[in-house]
Design brief:
Radius of gyration of chain A: 26 Å
Shape of chain A: flat
Distance between the termini of chain B: 41 Å
Number of helices of chain B: 12
Largest sheet of chain B: none
Largest sheet of chain A: none
Order of helices and strands of chain A: HHHHHHHHHHHH
Number of strands of chain A: 0
CATH architecture of one domain in chain B: Orthogonal Bundle
Structural class of chain B: mainly alpha
CATH superfamily of one domain in chain B: MetI-like
Oligomer: heterodimer
Helix content of chain B: over 70%
Amino acid sequence: MTDGQLLDAGSRRAIARRRFLDVLFQALALLILCLALGSLAALIADVWSDGFSRLSWDFLSGFPSRRAADAGIWHALSGSMFVILVTGVLAVPVGVASAVYLEEYARRSLMARIIEINITNLAAVPSIIYGLLGLGLFVRAMGMGRSVLAGASTLALLVLPVIILSTREALRAVPPSIREGSYALGASKWQTVWYQVLPVALPGILTGMILALSRAIGETAPLISIGALTFVAFAPDGLWSPFTVLPIQIFNWVSRPQIEFQANAAAGILVLLALLLTMNAAAIWLRDHYQKKLT
Amino acid sequence: MKRFEFLIEWALFLCALLSIGTTAGIILVLAVETFAFLREVPVTDFLFGTNWTPLFATPSFGVLPLVVGTVMVSAIAMAVALPMGLLSAIYLSEYAPLGVRRLVKPVLEILAGVPTVVYGYFALLFVTPLFQRVLPDLAGFNALSPGIVMGIMILPLVSSLSEDAMQGVPRGLREGAYALGATKMQTSLRVVLPAAFSGITAACILAASRAIGETMIVAIAAGQQPRLTSSPMVPIETMTAYIVQVSLGDTPQGTLEYRTIFAVGMLLFLGTFVLNLVSSWLRARFREEYT
């Protein structure tokens, strides 16, 4: 017996209508998705066509200039890399230590719960608020001025929640049997964490670290509000040196009306995106490498 | 040995405490400057005044234009991100074959990882000129194009968090719906979506909080003219863009202008903080429903 004999014409029509709606809905969803992906393509194509012709060795190694055609980004690029390096040095040890405490030592205590809720909330605080914190705390109260150290400290606080969350994730993925084996051999808690758990979790921790720092390298607002936009035409030469970073230089060029400077901004964006892509590729490589080793 | 273990635990605990210290630091820094500000400007003038001209010779400190500007841009962003994000989440969670998911999810991650200054460039120099061809009245700086671009920026957030919520709905509910003869669309819209409702709401609230706190897109493409208007076609200023504007100049510490950015920052912090709390409360409730 086929469908046709079982159901009357009205029911068959109703079923056909529902199936048609289903296909229509799926097509709509797919269209929306393509629209979202298409806007990414449009963004990249736009920046590429505006900025590609400006990319050159002179642009990468040059310094700012009043003439757009002579301007370069070395001061900003080296500033970005230096600030990110210091940010990593400040944030990673503290972030990993916090995660180890929350995950391995204090899983169920009330204090751990409070810290946990607090971290989730901090992760969603707008980045410009961190800038105001940096301005009030590091630049003014602690007297660091508008230095690399003040900028990196601000960014370190900003990425700390991200590092803690991703490190906890990595620690959670370590099988409990490894800890139990270590305890069975008479190792103490810290010995277990240091010699067994952390080495296994290391690739996951590094992946999270790279992703957190790649977020920091694109941050503009908090560094503007601590006052890093003062005209800096040299590469930073120490922790107390004034500095500028690539996103701020891009912002500076976008804000000018001349089309030549906007081309510089586009070229700067291409460099920034290339930097981000490299960092993300490294993170993905680490993740895949690690997954292969585990299975 | 025992003592060493004890010291280690304390050191780790102190590191974990730093995050509490950060929250305390934010509140303290904002509160100190805000109170100093409110000593000179009555709180009702600040909250309900309709004129924001703190840098003029005869300053006026009504924050409403900034608040309205912020809400308008965020509303436009949500109007883009909400339907698009939800639809793509439904598609990725309920329809998409594995190959499509593998392709699309990393691209969405890239979309979420693009620095906001890049989106600002895109809004000012690509989207606005594009819209001006259709809407000749559109000013070079406006609320419309940064709003739409911001919507694209937070779309991945809405999509991935909503998808997580939908994935959290037990398979049994779907199978029940299929057994009753429902199509995929009916199952998605009438079973999965309501079941994941609190998780999805949490995602949307978090996205709204992101939109309110977003800075560079509006600082670049929305203009810097605090204006109490309901038109998305003219230049406006958001709370975040104002903070950037003042930070760009060299405002001396201790002046009233310097304090305005902390007062505006306080308002911004409180607004997003409440949204974040509601969002994490909803997410926790959603997790309880199904475990």
